[in-house]
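QA checklist item 7 of 12: single-chain prediction sanity check.
[x] sequence parsed
[x] length recorded as 262
[x] structure emitted
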Amino acid sequence: MSPFDAVAPYFDRHRALPDGAAEKVRGAILAALAPRRDGAAGGRARLLDLGAGSGRIGWSFVAAGDDYVGIDLSYRMLQTFGHDTRIRAVLVQADGCALPFGTATFDAVLLVQVFGGLSGWRRLLDEGRRVLRPDGALILGRTATPADGVDARMKQHLATLLAGRATRPERRNTREDAMLYLAAIASTDTQHVAASWTAGRSPRMFLNRHAGGARFSRLPRAAREDALRVLAAWAQIQFGDLDATFPETHRFEMRLFRFSGG
């Protein structure tokens, strides 16, 4: 059972992308793959979304009729993804560290915001490379927010609060480790900004979103409630009002890795 099963019904409530953003991400991914797809059968790239979740990014591929496969360990997240039966999505419940696909099966493997608190990330990346065709690309994606924005400041202070309490803090995000590992073995490494938009952020939005986070929810209830209470009091002082909303520029960033010889 995945810890994301419990939060699947409301996971997107505070995490939805703005209209058109997912379609821009899809367009950027297909454009990046296009030069290597010349002469391929039908010119269509076959994509594996490793950690597809509720389909925030994947649904744009499904709706467009692309050759897309989504995989996730959480059955309930995949249920949320596939709730609209008007369009059939190819979704597989499986462990990303032991993919049920043959070697050299896909033209691209997508990993979108899967590294938060992830253990075994190296096995995950190696499996992604195994199922990648020789001219394919491993693509890491994420929504990036300003380093001095509301979310970043709240997250940093929450980490400080948890570290100072008698409870195990949330595991750190391993994305930087993963990128360093891939950069050392990749033949090419390119970065893209697929979409950008202005979003309003308030301290209360962070509190509501984080309270229902899968990793945070695994901490003892008393520790979670105490940390959020103290964080709210700190935010009240820092921002003046928990409902004060600040405009921020958010971006969807991609890093695309290719490997000589597959």
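[x] summary fact logged: The chain is about 35% helix and 25% strand.
[ ] second reviewer sign-off
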